[in-house]
Fold these 2 entries.
Entry 1:
Amino acid sequence: MKNIERKLVTIVIEQAIESRLIRDLHRIGVKGHTVTKANGSGPHGRRAGEIDGGNVKIETVVSSELRMAIIEHLEQHYLDKYACVVWSSDVTVSREQHF
Amino acid sequence: MNIFELALQNLTSPPVLAFALGLLATAIRADLRLPEAVYQGLSFYLLLGIGIKGGVALRDAEFSEIALPIAGTIALGVAIPLLAFFILGPLTKLPAYEKGALAAHYGSTSLVTFTAALVFLETAQTFVEGYMATLLAVLEIPGIIVGLLLASRGMSRTVNFKESLTEVLTGKSIILLAGGLLLGALTGSAGYSQVEPFFGGLFTGVLTLFLLELGLIAGKRIGDLKKVGIRLVIFGIGFPVIAGTLGITVGLLTGLSVGGATVLGVLSAASSYIAAPAAVRLALPEASPGIYLTSSLAITFPFNLIIGIPLYSVLAELIANGMGI
C-alpha cells in the first residue's frame, strides 16, 4: 500500500449557497466531494437558510496547490459575504489517481 | 358574522392554535423540533395538494373568467414590491439593498397564509373560486424579480439574476405548485376523487402540524424583534393591510367573488419566507436575513394568520358594498 500525502479541505457554509460553491469547486479542479448536513453555532449566530435547513459541511481531499486555490477562491467570493468557515488538515490516501 | 366573531372563529381554529402552541413552546424553551425530513415532506404535501385542487378547478374554468384575475395578479406582483420599496424609504433609514430584499419578500407570497385563509373561508361557508391556487403560483415570482431589480439600483457590482431566477423557478415551491396545477388539470374531478381522502380529508390536519413547526421557527425569531426596531415592526403590520386592501380591490375589479377577493387580498398581504429568502440570499449577500426573515416570519406571518385573515374578509365585504357589487 502506498501512502500519499494530501490535504483534506473542510468547508462549512449555509445551505442556500451549497450548489453554487460545489459548481465553483469542480471548476477549480476538485475531483470529488462529500456533503453532510451540519448544525452548530459561530460568532455570527444563525443562518438565512434556517427555515429550509441550516448549514452543510463540504469535504474534499486535494493536492496542496489545489488547497491554496480553493482557499483563495473562498476568500475572494465567499468568506466575507456568507456564513462560511474553512479549515484544512493533512491526510494520507492510498489511491493517487482518485484525489 | 361581525369582525369579533370572525376573529374568534379564526383564533380557535386548530391550525392557528397549533401555531400559538409552537410560539409558546419556544417561549418556555421546550426542545421541540419536527425532524427536517418530516418538515420537508409536509411542505411537499401542502404544495402538491393545493396545486392539484387548483388544477381540477382550473380545468372547469372558462379562459375568459380567469384571464382578468391573472392579469390583475401580475400587476399586483409588480406594484406591491414597488410600493413596499418606496414606503420603506421615508419609514426606515435602510440602504437600498435591504429595502430591495424586503420588497422581494413582500412582493412574493406565502402558501401557508393562503391555505389558512382557504380553511377560514371554508369554515365561514364563503364561496371561493377553486382556481385561486393559480394566482398563488403567479404571484410567487414577479415580486422577487422586482425586489432584486430595486436592490441592484445604485450597487457597484452586478447582481446575478440568472442564478436567483433559476433558484426560484426550479425551487420546490414552483415545481410542486405548478406541477400540481398541471396534474389536477389533466386528471380532472374523476382522477381527483382517487386521491381526495389523502389530499382533501387530511389536509387541515397536516396544515395544523405544519403550523406547529412554523410557530416553533417563528418563536425563535421573536427575540430578534428588539434588534430590527419599532419602525420595521410598524412596516411588518401596516404594509400587509395596505397591500391586502389593494389586492382585495383588484380582485373585485377583475370579477372575483367577495371570497375570491379576500383570498387575493391575503395573497397580496402575505410575505414569502421560503422562496424569496433562498433567492435573495444568493443574489444579495449584503442584505441581512436578520431583517428580512424576522420581518416576514416573526411579524407579518403571525399578524396575517391571527388578525389579517378575518380583517381582510371584513374589508372585502365593505369594499364590495362600497363598489355596489
Entry 2:
Amino acid sequence: MKIVKLVIALLVFASTIQAQSPEEKGLSVARAADKADQGFESSLVNLKMVLRNKQGQESTRFMENKTLELTEDGDKSLIVFKSPKDVEGTATLTFTHKTTSDDQWLYLPAIKRVKRISSDNKSGPFMGSEFAYEDLSSNEVEKYGYKFLKNEQFNGSNNAVVEQDPVDPKSGYKRRVVWYNLDKNYRLEKIEFYDRKNSLLKTLTYSDYKQYEGKYWRAGKFLMVNHQTGKETELFFEDWDLKSGLADTDFSQNSLRRAGR
Amino acid sequence: MGLIVLRRLWFVIVTFFFWHLSYAQSEEKDLQGDFELELQFDNRFFFKDGLYESQERNFLSLAAQPEYNLEWGKGNHIFKISLFGRWDQHDDNRTHFDVRELYYQRVKNNWELSIGLKKVFWGVTESVHLVDVINQTDQVESFDGEQKLGQPMVHYSNLTNFGNFELFYLPYQRKRQFPAREGRVRFPEVVEREDFDIDSDMEEWRPSFAFRWSHYFGPVDIGISHFYGVGREPLFTGLGTESQEFFYPIMNQTGIDVQAVTGPMLWKVESIYRDTEFQDFLALAVGAEYTFSNIASKGLDIGVLLEYLYDERDDLAISGFANDLFIATRLAFNDVNSTEILGGMVYDLDHKSRLFSVETSRRIGDSWKVEIEARIFDNLQEAEFLHFFRDDSFLQFGLSKFF
C-alpha cells in the first residue's frame, strides 16, 4: 500500500514537472537561486575596476561596497569611491525596492553635501565603465519576467539557461540570458545582454569563484565585454566578508557622510 | 585672536586624539590611516580693467590641500585633519591659510559626537544656499559661496525611527575675509575682516547654537533647522557714506529644505526666516531639475535646472537675488574622464540684469584634472548690490594634481 502511494506521489510530481511551462520553470530557477543566496546578512568587499578601451588602454578605479540583506524589501547598499583621487570619498547609498523605484543618495565630499538622485538612470554607464547601473544593483526576483530555455553543459557543469525580461521599461535591455550553475548552488556563470533592438550588446562572465560560510558562492572576477564597442571592464573582488555584522544604522545618510568624509 | 583660538583648539583636540590613540592601540589593532594631497595651479583673467584704484587684471595662484584621515575601533573612532592654503600673485587677502577640518568623532550605533573644526552643509538648491548657516563662507576662495571656513563645534547627532536629530554648539564665530586693494570682485573701498564688529560684548566668543531635524519619507527628504547666535552674513549700513557700519548681527533663523524625486525629476524647496534687531525677512528658493539620461545609449546625461529666488530684503540682499530666475543645464558625459559642463544664468526679473556662469571639468589620466570657469556680469543696474562688480567678469583656468 505504501509503495502504491509513493508511486502515485511520484507520478503526480513528475506530471507537475512536465506541466510546468517554460515561464514557470524559469521563475522557479530564479527563486531557487535567490533562496540559495539568502542568509548572508551583510557583506563587505573591496573592488578594483579595470576599464579597457578598444586600443587596450587601461584605467583603474578602487571602491568599497557594503550590502545589507533584507528579505521583505530589496537590499541596501553603500559604495565609496577610493580612486581616481579626484573623486575619492564620493559615495552612494541605495535602498533597493522590489517593485517601486529605488531610493538613492549621492555624497559629494568637497562640499559635504548629500544629494537625492533619481534612480531612473538605470541604463547609463557606471563610472565610465561597461557596467550599467542596473547590472550592479541587487538581483531581486520581481524585477524580471522569466523563460526557461534549456539545460546546458557549461565549463563542465550542468547549467540552466533562463531568459529574463526586465519589467521596468527604463531598462536598457530587451532581455538577458542567464546561465545558472545547477551543480554549484545556482551560482551565476554568464549573462548575455541584448539591447532594445534585440541585438547582442554585452557578455558578463563570472570567474574565480570561492565558497564562503560553507554555502555562499562569490566570484572573484566579473568580466564585461561590450561587443558593439570592443571595450571591456573587469571587476576584481578582494576577500568577501559575509555575515560581517553590519546593521541598519550602517546604511543611513549619516553613515554615507562618514564613509565619504 | 583667531590664531590663539586655533592653537587652543588644536591643543585640546590633539591631546584628546592621542589619549584615544593609545587606548585604541591597546584594545584593537585596526588602525587605518590615509593621507591625501591636492595641489592646484590656477589663473584668473578679468576681461576689463578694474573700476577701482590698484586693481589688477590677471591673477596667478597656487593652492594646496593636504588631508589625513584616521579611523580605528571598526570605524567607530574617527580623526580627520584637512588644511587649505593659497598663494595669490597680487591679492594679499586671497593669500590665506585655513584649517578646514580638525576633529575627532565618536560613533556608537545610532549616535555620533564630533568635537573640533568641521564643515556642515544643509540645503538642496543649486543657485543659492539659504539654509546653510553653520560655516562662514571663504569669500576670497569662492564666488558661489560653496567654499567654507572650518567652524569650531561640538556636534551631536542621533538617528531615530523619527528622523535624525542634530545639536550644534558653536563656541566661536569666524569672520569673513574680503579681497585686498589689488583684488577684484570687491567694493569701491577696501574692507578688511577686522573692520567688522560683532553685535555682542563677547565678540567672537559669543556662542551660537543650532538644531536640525531631517528625515526621509520614500521619495521625499525634509529638513527643519533653527540657528540662534552670530549671523555668518555681515550687515552693511550706509555703505559709501560717512556713517557706514559693518557688523555681524545676533540672529534667529529658521530654515526648511525639502527635496522630492518623481521619476527623472527632482523638486527642491529651500526657505528661511531670519530675525535680527535690524531686519527680519523671508527668503525662498524653489526649483526643479529634470535629467534626460543615457541619451542615444551614449552615456550622456543632460540635466535642465530651473529655480526661482525670492528675498524680502530687496536690493539690500547681499546675495542680490531678490526676485530672480536661475536657468541652467548640466552635461555629464559619464566617460572615463568624467567630463562635465554646467552652464547657467541668473536673471533678475526686476532689473533685467544677468549673471552667467560656466563650469567645466575633466580628468586627465588618473591623477590630474582641468577645470575652466567663467563668470559674466551683464547689464547690472545701479540699484543693485552687484553693481559694484559690474566690470569683474572673468575666465579662470585651473589644473590640479592629486596624490
